[in-house]
Design brief:
By secondary structure, this protein is mainly alpha-helical. It has three domains: 1-53; 57-118, no CATH class; 119-159. It is 66% helix and 0% strand. It is built from seven helices and no strands. It starts with a helix and ends in a 5-residue tail after the last helix.
Length: 164
């Protein structure tokens, strides 16, 4: 079950400030204990700043990703240590990068763009419908041109006297 950022912060504060055991929070709220431990580490390092809703999502360049992957594959640091250092909300982000690198190689690693740049569902439907209408318009124009060119030939045939 996914939890919002504010819920994660609430669980972390319950554990750190009220001394509620992680296992109790995990069973009562259906939260993964390892994720909660990670969130607690994030809170200890950065405070509430790590759980703030950001206006613009962070972007990661290809070079940053490759450097991070190299650190992980060389064994210098663990995925969790690197994710904490980058203040990521979830260490699975880096493990996804590493898995993609292992599957596709360096060519599979690309720059990340913020989700705000992606189209929402209604906008995607609008773009798709617009593209379809433009294709229909092109086809209709081509049909009209064909009919305009063939119309005089049809008239000639209809006016020719029939052979007896």
């Amino acid at each position: 079950m996914k939890h919002t950022i504010s819920e994660k912060l609430q669980f972390v504060k319950m554990h750190i400030e009220e001394n509620v055991p992680i296992s109790e929070i995990a069973t009562n709220y259906g939260f993964d204990p390892t994720s909660l431990k990670y969130c607690c580490s994030l809170y200890r390092m950065y405070g509430e700043k790590a759980f703030e809703k950001k206006e613009k999502a962070r972007t990661y360049t290809r070079e940053e990703k490759l450097k991070t992957i190299a650190i992980i594959l060389s064994g210098e640091k663990t995925i969790r240590e690197v994710a904490l250092g980058m203040m990521l909300s979830d260490p699975k982000i880096i493990s996804d990068w590493v898995n993609k690198y292992r599957r596709e190689g360096e060519a599979g690693i690309k720059d990340t763009f913020s989700r705000a740049a992606y189209l929402k569902h209604d906008d995607r439907l609008f773009v798709k419908e617009h593209k379809k209408l433009l294709e229909d318009l092109e086809r209709t124009k081509a049909e009209n041109e064909y009919l305009k060119k063939s119309f005089p030939h049809i008239l000639k045939r209809s006016k020719q006297p029939k052979k007896k």
